[in-house]
């Protein structure tokens, strides 16, 4: 490393970056957009949770997970189960053979609520489960893989397999999970109608606050001794191991953190969009999530947020303008980004924009780019 | 940001051919009532702020044109565009030309919900023609109910639904099943059935209705099996069928699995033209045969409400106009025809109500008759489904069905059949 890492939580430029993002998320977007578009951006921001988790796992820790959709989905499903139970009151479901159970169970000839749905009547249990279920699951995967020193491409392939297995399980067990349709028609949260415009706006801000909590956690981890160990592990795993550190534990930890972030994103997604379906769990969405991270720049926590916003905004805009050709446009965007800017948006900022700003401000070089120098040097 | 392209109805392929041939032809068929827009001031016909101007009205088209469902849904998009074009050629709706905003559901249910919301909230479309799979309909349903939109849904489906914000132009399960089973027992003397399906709600509910009806007739179901969507190994179930020797294989296999199923059936030596066992399906339209291959399914029977080969005048004109607009190689399946009814039923409802307001359309819709439908006469039931005939077709080598049976009367839609839930 060329510069000594700062012990403060933020360097000056990082602090400015956080403030700019906060202004965009909490002021500019809500003021500039109508509720419908704001809700869409709220949805995009839920993917940013996953992308930030991936920056820690992949960018810092070198663990490429192609199965983050699993954790996004588990978090989302836990929330959806709670909301679905609340929506399935005996009055609302009086036309069913068995009133009081979710409609898809009735269609699949279930006559009683499965035992493992019961706890989801409780909101506090649900909040606990949103984090705990994915974290326990990622812990099991992590222990099974990292203890055996499975890493790199093999780990990526196994996470893909897990994503595929979970999708098949959800679709196959449609009586318990809603199958391909997913869990739809979610209405209220403790009696509060989440479908109204005002609810959407409130949820957007709750989502934004949660995202910043995750961003600060991620920043803290990056700046801690643990963060530096992660980067050391990514670059020279054996040396870290020979220095006496238990590499597997650190990997399991950061993988669980990534899963927890993804799960919070999934739960916020369910709240804002009003349903959850297996199409967020499988291989394709999991890879898309890695793309958000790559476009933003896999080394930059804030870049991940911009990446998720840009890609999803482009997806919506292209598909509205060119319903039959939009996939090609999106593909071209990815190729262009990877060819021209291998470090993503964050790389563009570091290489192209930051030096100009520095020139404009006529400051001495070392103060501003310290953090970025650390990142690029670490590669 | 919402810079969606607005399409005028008449921007399709072969515009001139359609206007010259199709419009002249349809004009003679659908006797146009010339309604002038100035007789219906915008303020009076549109009290809820929909996208209606003095000379245009905007509707939405919401289907998958990318992804795995594109192959099925493209026909519906084409049919809806044809209907809109023809309506415009006759002077539009209440003197207003229909414009449409097309959105792509991308074979992804959440995307359907997002786009439905965009169409209703940002574009304020007066109605939406769209969706195909039950999953996509379930995803958009809360959106239509919350923002009070009107969806014209074309696919035959499992029933168990009756939304005030949907007009179901396809048949619900009982309309497709009961008459077909009666036919096969009466004319073919079938006594035993083997039920097979893809594993999701439509085949499962349909087979449940079929089983109930078969058992009510005092006949036997000798087997019932389900395979995941996309499954391609049917050899074990085919062997089971050979052992159980049912009179009828009742198949509700969906999508790409069909190709494998019918090829393996043929390879296993089951010659469907001999009708021992006889194969009856409710999931293979002319569109699917394109993928399966006529030689692989020749001799099977399908139970639908529409076949391209219907010889009534409405259908001859429809098929001709469809081919003029979209090319000679095109085939038209049951759902495509149902999608074509959507814009026409909406137009009829608007004109009956004298208003574009969704609440008034909902009120006006039951009882609306369409004498010009390619499938023949249809009528909207109180429960928002259509009265329509059930027909049985016999698959031929060229990929078309020969109609061998149709019910004498229209069959009443019954989305919540007693005891079938």
Largest sheet of chain B: 7 strands, mixed
Tell me, briefly, the overall form of chain A. globular
* Biggest sheet features of chain A: 2 strands, antiparallel
Adjacency order of strands in the biggest sheet of chain B: 8-7-9-10-11-15-16
**Which residues of chain B sit in consecutive blocks of at least 5 with pLDDT less than 50?**
1-5, 8-29
- Order of helix and strand elements from N to C terminus of chain A: HHHHHHHEEHHHHHHHHH
Describe the overall structure:
Chain A: It is found in: Cell membrane. Chain A: This is Leucine/isoleucine/valine transporter permease subunit. Chain A: One of its GO terms (molecular function) is branched-chain amino acid transmembrane transporter activity. Chain A: It is a multi-pass membrane protein. Chain A: It holds the Pfam family BPD_transp_2. The complex is a heterodimer of chains A (379) and B (421). Chain A has 379 residues and is mainly α. Chain A has one domain (17-282, 297-302). Chain A contains 16 helices and two strands. In chain A, strands 1-2 form a two-stranded antiparallel sheet. In chain A, strand 1 (188-189) and strand 2 form a beta hairpin. In chain A, helix 1 (12-32) runs antiparallel to helix 8 (197-223). The longest helix of chain A is centred in the middle third of the chain and has 27 residues, at 197-223. The radius of gyration of chain A is 22 Å and the shape is globular. Chain A starts with 11 loop residues before the first helix and ends with a helix. With 421 residues, chain B is α/β, with parallel strands linked by helices. Chain B has two domains: 7-171 and 310-387, Response regulator (Rossmann fold), CATH 3.40.50; 173-304 and 391-406, Rossmann fold, CATH 3.40.50.2300. Chain B has 14 helices and 16 strands. Chain B has a seven-stranded mixed β-sheet, with helices on both faces. A six-stranded mixed β-sheet of chain B has the order 1-3-2-4-5-6, with helices on both faces. In chain B, strands 12-13-14 form a three-stranded antiparallel β-sheet, with helices on one face. In chain B, helix 6 (173-188) packs across helix 7 (201-216) and helix 13 (334-353) packs across helix 14. The longest helix of chain B is centred in the first third of the chain and has 20 residues, at 70-89. Chain B starts with 6 loop residues before the first strand and ends in a 15-residue tail after the last strand. The chains are: A mainly alpha (379), B alpha/beta (421). The A-B interface holds A 34, 36-37, 40, 43, 95-97, 104, 106-109, 168, 171-172, 174, 179-182, 184-187, 195, 273-275, 277, 279-280, 316-317, 319-324, 326-327 and B 1-5, 65-66, 102-104, 106, 108-111, 113-115, 117-118, 121-122, 133-135, 138-139, 141-142, 146, 158, 160, 199-201, 204-205, 208, 228-229, 416, 421.
């Amino acid at each position: 490393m060329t510069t000594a890492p700062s012990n403060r939580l933020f360097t000056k430029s990082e602090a400015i970056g956080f403030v700019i993002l906060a202004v965009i998320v909490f002021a500019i977007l809500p003021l500039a957009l109508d509720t419908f578009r704001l809700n869409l951006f709220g949805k995009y921001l839920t993917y940013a949770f996953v992308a930030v988790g991936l920056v820690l796992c992949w960018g810092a820790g070198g663990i490429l997970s192609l199965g983050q959709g699993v954790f996004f989905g588990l978090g989302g499903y836990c929330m959806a189960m709670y909301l679905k139970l609340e929506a399935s009151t005996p009055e609302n479901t009086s036309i069913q053979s068995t009133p009081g159970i979710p409609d898809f169970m009735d269609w699949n000839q279930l006559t009683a609520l499965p035992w493992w749905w019961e706890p989801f009547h409780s909101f506090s249990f649900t909040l606990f489960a949103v984090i705990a279920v994915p974290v326990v699951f990622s812990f099991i995967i992590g222990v099974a893989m990292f203890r055996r020193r499975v890493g790199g491409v093999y780990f990526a392939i196994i996470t893909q397999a897990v994503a595929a297995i979970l999708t098949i399980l959800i679709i196959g067990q449609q009586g318990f999970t809603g199958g391909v349709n997913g869990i739809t028609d979610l209405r209220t949260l403790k009696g509060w109608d989440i479908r109204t415009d005002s609810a959407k706006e409130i949820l957007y801000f709750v989502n934004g606050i949660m995202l910043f909590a995750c961003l600060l956690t991620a920043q803290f981890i990056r700046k801690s001794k643990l963060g530096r160990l992660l980067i050391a592990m990514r670059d020279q795993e054996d040396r870290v191991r020979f220095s006496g550190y238990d590499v597997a534990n650190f990997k399991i930890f950061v993988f669980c953190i990534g899963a927890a972030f993804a799960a919070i994103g999934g739960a916020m997604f369910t709240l804002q969009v009003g349903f959850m379906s297996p199409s967020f769990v499988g291989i394709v969405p999991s890879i898309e999530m890695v793309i958000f991270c790559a476009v933003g720049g896999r080394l930059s926590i804030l870049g991940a947020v911009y990446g998720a916003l840009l890609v999803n905004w482009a997806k919506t805009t292209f598909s509205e303008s060119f319903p039959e050709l939009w996939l090609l446009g999106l593909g071209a965007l990815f190729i262009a980004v990877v060819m021209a800017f291998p470090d993503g948006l964050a790389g563009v900022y570091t290489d192209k924009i930051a030096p100009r700003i520095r020139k404009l401000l006529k400051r001495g070089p070392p103060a501003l780019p310290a953090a970025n120098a650390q990142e690029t040097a670490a590669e | 940001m919402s810079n969606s392209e607005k399409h005028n109805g008449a921007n399709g392929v072969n515009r001139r051919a359609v206007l010259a041939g199709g419009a002249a032809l349809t004009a003679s068929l659908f006797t146009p009532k010339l309604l002038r827009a100035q007789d219906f001031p915008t303020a009076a016909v549109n009290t809820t702020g929909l996208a209606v101007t003095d000379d245009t009205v905007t509707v939405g088209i919401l289907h998958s044109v990318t992804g795995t469902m594109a192959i099925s849904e493209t026909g519906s998009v084409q049919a809806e565009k044809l209907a809109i074009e023809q309506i415009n050629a006759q002077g539009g709706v209440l003197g207003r030309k229909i414009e449409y905003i097309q959105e792509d559901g991308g074979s992804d249910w959440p995307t359907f919900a997002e786009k439905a919301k965009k169409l209703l909230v940002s574009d304020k479309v007066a109605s939406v023609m769209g969706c195909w799979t039950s999953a996509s309909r379930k995803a958009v349903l809360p959106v239509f109910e919350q923002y009070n939109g009107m969806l014209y849904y074309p696919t035959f489906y499992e029933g168990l639904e009756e939304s005030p914000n949907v007009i179901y132009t396809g048949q619900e399960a009982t309309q497709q099943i009961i008459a077909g089973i009666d036919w096969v027992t009466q004319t073919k003397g079938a006594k035993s059935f083997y039920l097979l399906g893809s594993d999701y709600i439509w085949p499962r509910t349909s087979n449940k209705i079929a089983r109930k009806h078969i058992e009510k007739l005092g006949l036997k179901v000798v087997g019932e099996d389900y395979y995941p969507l996309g499954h391609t190994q049917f050899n074990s179930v085919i062997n089971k069928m050979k052992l159980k020797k049912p009179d009828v294989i009742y198949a509700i296999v969906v999508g790409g699995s069909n190709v494998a199923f019918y090829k393996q059936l043929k390879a296993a030596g089951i010659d469907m033209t001999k009708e021992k066992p006889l194969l009856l399906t409710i999931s293979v339209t002319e569109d699917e045969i394109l993928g399966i291959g006529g030689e692989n399914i020749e001799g099977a029977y399908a139970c639908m409400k529409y076949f391209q080969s219907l010889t009534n005048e409405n259908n001859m004109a429809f098929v001709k106009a469809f081919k003029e607009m979209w090319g000679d190689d095109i085939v038209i399946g049951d759902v495509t025809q149902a999608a074509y009814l959507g814009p026409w039923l909406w137009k009829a409802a608007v004109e009956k109500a004298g208003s574009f307001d969704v609440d008034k359309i909902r009120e006006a819709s039951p009882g609306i008759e369409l004498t010009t439908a390619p499938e023949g006469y249809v009528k909207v039931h109180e429960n928002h489904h259509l009265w329509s005939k059930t027909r049985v077709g016999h698959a031929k080598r060229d990929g078309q069905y020969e109609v061998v049976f149709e019910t004498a009367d229209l069959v009443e839609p019954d989305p919540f059949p007693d005891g079938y839930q």
